[in-house]
Specification:
By secondary structure, the protein is an alpha+beta fold. About 20% of the residues lie in helices and about 40% in strands. The strands form 2 sheets. A 9-stranded mixed sheet has the order 6-7-8-5-10-13-12-11-9, sandwiched between helices.
C-alpha cells in the first residue's frame, strides 16, 4: 500500500517572486499539478512536488528557526555539488542560515531560506550512518551518489521534523505508516543530545530529530494565511481508511481535512487513483 510523500505545500506572499526563486536557484520546473487554480503553482523536484500557494498578508505563524521546536523543520534537496550550487545562492544575494560545511555523517550541507522564511537545505555525498538498520537502502543511496554528476540539478531528498520522543515517532511513522528505518546519526558534539533517525518514505526520506534537551510545541494551526510550511501530502490508496488508522495512532483532525501528527506535523492524504 502506497503511503509515499507526494508533495509539500508552502505558503508564499508573492507567487511570481517565489516561482522565480525556486526556478532560478534550484532549477525546479513548473508543472501541471493534481489541483490548480489562481494563486497556486506546482514545481517538480524529482519524484516529489512542491505546491506553492499565495496566501496574502500572512506570516510564519510562530515557526522559528530552532530545531527544538517540534513540527516541520526544513526540506532538503540533493545536489551534485553543494559548493557549486551555493555559488548561485550567494550570487543572488540570499544569505545562508548555515554556510556550506562538512557535516557529521560524511555529507556536505548548506541552509538558506526562501523569500518567506521557508527553511531549505542542500546536501551532497551520502550518509555514513552510525547505526545502519537497512544495509540495502544505505547501499542504494551510496550508489546513487556515486553516479550523480557534479552539475546534477537538485532533486527533493527529505523532510525533517522534530519529535518529542523517538518511540512515539517510530510508532506513528514506522509502525503505522510503514516507513522503514534506514539508519541513525548521533550528533555527539551537540550538547542538546541530538539524534537523527532516517526513514524511507517512498521517493523521499523522513528525518526525525530527537533531543535529550526539552523541546517546545509546534505552533502550527490551520490558518489559511500561513506562509512557510503548510503540510506534507501523502499518496494513499484509501484516504478515509488511512485517516482512521492515523487518528487511532494519535493524529488529530484539523481544518480542511488535514491531520496533525502527535508532534504537530500537518499531513494531507491524497488518493492515488
Amino acid at each position: 500500500m502506497s503511503r509515499d510523500i507526494r508533495h509539500v505545500e508552502i505558503g508564499v506572499a508573492d507567487l511570481a517572486r517565489s516561482l522565480d526563486f525556486y526556478r532560478s536557484l534550484l532549477d525546479l520546473a513548473e508543472v501541471e499539478g493534481p489541483a490548480g487554480g489562481a494563486g497556486v503553482a506546482w514545481l517538480a523536484a524529482g519524484a516529489v512536488l512542491l505546491k506553492l500557494v499565495e496566501t496574502g498578508d500572512g506570516d510564519l505563524g510562530g515557526w522559528v528557526n530552532d530545531d527544538l521546536q517540534r513540527g516541520i523543520r526544513h526540506i532538503g534537496f540533493k545536489v551534485g555539488d553543494v559548493d557549486l550550487r551555493a555559488e548561485r545562492v550567494r550570487d543572488a544575494g540570499v544569505p545562508f542560515t548555515l554556510p556550506p560545511l562538512d557535516a557529521v555523517g560524511g555529507v556536505r550541507i548548506a541552509f538558506f531560506q526562501d523569500p518567506d522564511g521557508t527553511h531549505l537545505e542542500i546536501t551532497d555525498n551520502y550518509l555514513r550512518y552510525h547505526r545502519v538498520a537497512s544495509p540495502e537502502i544505505a547501499e542504494r543511496e551510496r550508489l546513487a551518489t556515486l553516479s550523480r554528476p557534479r552539475t546534477a540539478p537538485p532533486v527533493f531528498d527529505h523532510v525533517a521534523v522534530t519529535s518529542g520522543g523517538l518511540d512515539a515517532a517510530l510508532a506513528f511513522y514506522r509502525d503505522t505508516l510503514g516507513y522503514e528505518v534506514i539508519g541513525q546519526i548521533t550528533q555527539d558534539q551537540d550538547p542538546r543530545g541530538f539524534l537523527i533517525t532516517y526513514l524511507l518514505a517512498g521517493p523521499a526520506v523522513l528525518e526525525v530529530f530527537t533531543f535529550t534537551a526539552a523541546t517546545t510545541p509546534s505552533p502550527w494551526t490551520a490558518d489559511p494565511g500561513r506562509r512557510g510550511f503548510r503540510h506534507v501530502a501523502l499518496a494513499v490508496d484509501d484516504p478515509e481508511r488511512e485517516a482512521g488508522r492515523l487518528v487511532a495512532s494519535g493524529a488529530r483532525v484539523a481544518a480542511d481535512g488535514l491531520l496533525v501528527d502527535p508532534d504537530g506535523v500537518p499531513l494531507a492524504l491524497a488518493g492515488t487513483a
